Amino acid sequence: MTSMSLARGHVEVLQFLRDRTSVVFTFLFPALLLLLFGTIFGDSYDQAGVSASQVYASSMLAYGILTTGFVTMGAGLAMDREDGTLKRLRGTPLPLTSYLIGKLILVLTMAVAEAALLILVGVVVFDMPLPDASHWLTFAWLFGLSVIVCTLLGVAVSGIVKHARSAGAILNVPVVILQFISGVFIHPITQLPTWLITVASLFPVKWMAQGFRYVFLPDSMKSLEAAGAWELGRIAMVLGAWCVIGLVLCLATFRWSEKDR
């Protein structure tokens, strides 16, 4: 099954790379937003001497993963279902697990490339310092859990998308909303009403962004978080819980074709 999964992943990556419009939009849009926000709000926080652009550079990693995982997976599965790809694959020896692992390989490849581009922009354009070794270890498990969560939720939500042509528009609505209430586009997050921060805390994006700020920003910046601390243990627990929730939702909503609705 491993060889079939890798082969399917290779096919998924090649198919994505052939669509130049998707490649450009997926990779450049988060970086362009980072350049825009970082340039407009590029002042410094007095208490830490950290520029707003550096904060955006770290927080936007959560946005990049959410876009590549949730949106790409959700829209891709909806398209494969509508054009009959899933129905044809159902009659082949390729198991569902290998198909989904192939999609995960695509998302992971895209997420790594997206993260590298955002970090490069942050370091080169906005002088964001690179973290030490211990923080890179935190980055590794945080990045892995974030990719898994967003991918599983993308698979789950694809089951309720009726038409592939509307998938992008539908999936981007919660993505944009979560960026604003989760401290990605608006920081410090304490500027938001308390009830809105509570709502954001129910979803993984707030914790993803907070974790990436821990990785790339100095410890003094934790005072700007909602709890005044980085809360790494809680971040791991919330993302782990969402992995379980995402898996349950996948099993409940996945279908091979529209007739299975």
List descriptors:
two-stranded antiparallel sheet, 261 residues, mainly alpha, 2 strands
Q: Helix/strand-derived class?
A: mainly alpha
DSSP helical segment count: 10
Widest β-sheet, arrangement of strands? 1-2
Total domain units: 1
Order of helices and strands: HHEEHHHHHHHH
> Proportion of β residues?
under 5%
Number of strands: 2
* Oligomer state of the chains in this structure: single chain
Mean pLDDT, nearest integer? 84
As a percent range, the share of helical residues equals over 70%
Largest sheet report: 2 strands, antiparallel
Distance between the termini: 28 Å
- Report the uncertain regions: none
Shape field: globular
Radius of gyration: 19 Å
Subcellular location: Cell membrane; Membrane
GO cellular component, one term: ATP-binding cassette (ABC) transporter complex
Protein name: Transport permease protein
Domain ABC transmembrane type-2: 21-257
Condensed summary:
It is built from ten helices and two strands; from the N terminus they run H-H-E-E-H-H-H-H-H-H-H-H.
Describe this structure in words.
The chain has 261 residues and is mostly helical. The chain has one domain. It is built from ten helices and two strands; from the N terminus they run H-H-E-E-H-H-H-H-H-H-H-H. The protein has a two-stranded antiparallel sheet. Helix 3 runs antiparallel to helix 5, helix 3 packs across helix 9 (204-216) and helix 6 (133-158) runs antiparallel to helix 9. The longest helix is centred in the first third of the chain and has 31 residues, at 52-82. The chain is globular. It starts with a helix and ends in an 8-residue tail after the last helix. Residues 21-257 form the ABC transmembrane type-2 domain. One of its GO terms (cellular component) is ATP-binding cassette (ABC) transporter complex. This is Transport permease protein. It is a multi-pass membrane protein. Pfam families: ABC2_membrane.
